[in-house]
Specification:
This protein is an alpha/beta fold and 252 residues long. The chain has 5 helices and 15 strands.
Length: 252
Amino acid sequence: MISQRKAFTVAQFSDCHLFSDKSSKHFGANVWQNLTQVLTDIASRKNIDCAVFTGDLTQDHSELSYQYFVEAVAQAQFSIPVYFLAGNHDDKKMMAKYLTAPNFQTNSTISHDFWQLQLVDSKSDTPSGLVSQKSLTELAQRIDNNKFQLLMMHHHPVNIGYYIDKHGLINQQTFWQTINQLNDANMTIKAIACGHVHRASQLSKHQVDIYTCPATSVQFGEAKEKMASIVPSYRLFYLNSNGTMTSEIITP
């Protein structure tokens, strides 16, 4: 249980796309430097309760990229727990091998006095996302209806409006049927936060706010060949005891 403060503050960072060579670039960005810049900023902020990485650790699928991710987190010297989800580029076995205590936590539910964060696995065998029926059933079992809920996942559960939608969540209808059923009683699921789209946005569906996270690597433009920015960013959430929340984008 994470102790209560004025607000339960969560840092979400996502999509670092590391290589086996720290000098390698992704669409012109040195992704290793971008990641360490973001992690240093997160570690410097004393009001943050935990950090959640929402996937796409690796770009070249190398074992070294997982080791470098662990190295970057260790260098930041976090005093807070770091949780993580697999993205479509990631290998869950590699994550389990390298992302271990004391720097990382493997819980699917993060509990606070008034809030729960639920980490939802959306990785499939393709670049697109899929939240299995088993995962949806387990999610329903984990939810404490006496607490407000923020769901976190890699893939976006709604269409964003550009080319990344072809790799979004392929079972959106089933996913939202479950969310609506869980919210029928008292609307405890307040928001969903995702990575994958490489840009910050806020949408809403069925009275649930949806936040997308900018990447630590590069921010996507409207066309895959055109990056909007190679400047790294991340998102902060401030979760209040009355169920309200605010969020801001941090560009170190």
